Amino acid sequence: MPNRAANNLQAALDAHGRLTIDRDCVGCGYNVRGLDHDGQCPECGMAVARSVHGDELRFADPQWLAVVCGGLRWIRITLASALIAFLLLMVGSTVTTLIPAASVDSFSTFSLIVAVIGLLISLVLPVTLAWGVWRLCRQEPKQLSREPSLSWRNVTRFVTPVAIALCVGYTASPATATLMTMIWWIVTMLVLGVAAVALLSYLAALARRIPAPDQGQRLRRLRRETVLVLGCVLLINAVELAVWVGVVQHIPPSSASWINRYHGNFESCMNAIIAIGTLYLAIAYPIAVNVTARKIDAARRAGLELTGG
Q1: Once rounded to an integer, what is the mean pLDDT over residues 253-259?
Q2: What domain range is 88 assigned to?
Q3: pTM score, whole prediction
Q4: CB 3.0 to 4.6 Å from 78: which of 57, 128, 179, 233, for a disulfide?
Q5: What is the pLDDT of residue 289?
Q6: Are 76 and 212 members of one domain?
Q7: SS3 per-residue string spanning 1-55
């Protein structure tokens, strides 16, 4: 505990360690003044220390915090498995391209096995990610009556499965350039971006309660960068949709050549920006989640030590 917090706590306790200030129990609202700091609320059994120290995670409900840490663990497993699946698919594709199957059958079989393993892993990822987010966003018991309906936790918990379903549906759809598939892609990117921003915002709110202000600032900065990359993606897709509709359906071929030329230059520049931004997020996102998960788990273990759990 920081020195300032320790001094404030000592000033709020008498010589026998009893609380000398009014403080409502976070479990039931009972005034715990006069109770021992290491004791429990006589009405609901909540530890008095959890009411004294406010929203710090180490004084949160230990069972809820264990579920949150379990959800983060599943998300970390998903991110690591996604990287492994991507590498396996890349290895299988590269081996198949560089070494013809007719010349070396063993390499062809190896590439096929590697690609199949990568594909099987990628099929499980949506389930593990949805399960991890669902556990991470479990509602905290003491907030049943005061959390707003449109909180980052609720947005993350309910928008993420929708984003996953849209991504899976788009991946399984025919790879043909139609108006419906282009609109589906734009909607998928928008919902996916909302889910990613909501997750980062919820993690930043949890980091504030560790407390870990530096990590919270990193998460908020990553959130702004995610919004920037998402904006670029939506912009280029909106332009492509407008050009596709205009060129294919309305503009005569003789008048569309210059549009295609300038659109191609714009698309190349935006794709380069998006590729760099996506690569950065692919590296920064797992790091941010991993660091935050370790800090939250450390707060959970500190809480168990304080309560002798």
Answers
A1: 55
A2: 59-307
A3: 0.77
A4: 128
A5: 94
A6: yes
A7: CCHHHHHHHHHCECCCCEECCCCECCCCCCECCCCECCCECCCCCCEHHHHHCCC
